[in-house]
Amino acid sequence: MTASLHNIKVLLGITGGIAAYKTPDLVRKLTQQGAEVRVVVTSSAKSFVSPLSLQAVSGNTVSDDLLDPMAEAAMGHIELAKWADVLLIAPATANFIAKLAHGMADDLLSTLCLATQAPVFIAPAMNQQMWQAQATVANMQTLSDRGVGVFGPAQGEQACGDVGPGRMLEPEELVNALSQNLIQPVLQGKKIVITAGPTREHLDPVRYITNYSSGKMGFALARAAHLMGAEVVLVSGPVNLPTPSVSKFHKVVTAQNMLDAVMGEISDSDIFIGCAAVADYRPVESVNHKIKKSNEEMSLSFVRNPDILANVAALENAPFTVGFAAETQNVSGYAKDKLERKKLNMIAANDVSKKDIGFNSDDNQLHVFWKDGDVLLDRADKLTLATQLLTLISEHYYDA
Ligand code: PMT
């Protein structure tokens, strides 16, 4: 499968080095590969490249100021940080590398580096002596320990006349390096139905039973599946998240609504992932007037909701079916039991007894089981984990 940047949102940060003059060509090559590009320049970068040229080639306004009310009103810096699938800084000067290594946030680009969850790649460009200086070497070590990807620099003759390492890679080399380091479209042509978020089961017009699911994990799966080329149908309970780019989005409330939406989509789907925290029970009756208080005690009766995951897995032409298991004790044991009982292809066990992973957290950790194997996906942000889980699913899907 060839690498491409189709649908990838690239935030290109340009800092003040002579190689900045090559960035309009870099933007053009990125967009030719299918990427959507937004550009952020530092104030010194503007001495080497014109924001107007960058706006013309990217088709988007170029941002340069953290405190510009007009730019903030159009797309605020946090929104821009969340928009990006990847942040590429090219050229990255010695000064900007030092700022990044020290976590400074004194301009728009360095602030975005701290505010984004997207992977960050840098293309260093500087004089060969500056590149080999102890401070730069230490800063680069810090960044690589932190997972920042580095493209280059190349060896050769430099603008100042020196010869040695420090030249920015050529635009074409940068585009190739980026596409090879990003999510690959291994799910191209596959339809994936994903459930996310909680369901609400109404007691009366003003009260309902629900749980702590925020939808973050399911939405991250939808986003990653879209980036991997799949046709994604996301069926979500009530959440407070921006809708990711997907082919179809079904907003539902109750478990029954969720089942109906899933069953309407499932017949031609290839993969189903049940990430929603579906209420197992609903009140026997939901009255259409507000329940008034009367006695000191009150009891409610519940009936079982349909099990969406089990219903999908039991279909005659069932898609590759993946469940989640949210547990607070005996996590692996209960997950393996669900894998077998619900006749699933795979299950991701989620220990929800810990506050910093699972429900409503930005990070998670998953122990994934299938018939004759398992793998522990270490703690990471939910988009990274979603990508790892989908890669695993695609390997097993194509093996099946
Ligand atoms: O949304 P976040 O805040 O990001 O949190 C993520 C998460 C913790 C909700 C998620 O990672 C997770 O673990 N989801 C599954 C939650 C759950 O309901 O687990 P369960 O063990 O009760 O259910 C097992 C499986 O059956 C799940 O795939 C569930 O979607 C499915 N199910 C359960 C009941 C039901 N009536 N229908 C179902 O389809």
Overall description:
The protein has about 400 residues and is α/β, with parallel strands linked by helices. It has 2 domains: about 10-180, Rossmann fold (3-Layer(aba) Sandwich), CATH 3.40.50; about 190-400, 3-Layer(aba) Sandwich (Rossmann fold), CATH 3.40.50. About 35% of the residues lie in helices and about 25% in strands. It has helices at about 25-30, 50-60, 70-75, 75-85, 95-100, 110-115, 130, 135-145, 170-180, 215-225, 255-265, 310-315, 330-340, 380-400, and strands at about 10-15, 35-40, 85-90, 120-125, 150, 155, 165, 190-195, 200-205, 205-210, 230-235, 250, 270-275, 280-285, 300-305, 320-325, 345-350, 365-370, 375-380. The strands form 5 sheets. Strands 12-11-8-13-16-17-18-19 form an 8-stranded mixed β-sheet, sandwiched between helices. It has a 5-stranded parallel β-sheet with strand order 2-1-3-4-5, with helices on both faces. It has a two-stranded antiparallel sheet with strand order 6-7. Helix 1 (about 25-30) packs parallel to helix 2, helix 4 (about 75-85) crosses helix 6 and helix 5 packs across helix 8 (about 135-145). The model has no long low-confidence stretch (mean pLDDT about 95). Bound molecules: ligand PMT. Ligand PMT binds near residues 213, 218, 326, 352 and 358. Ligand PMT binds next to helix 10, helix 12 and strand 16.
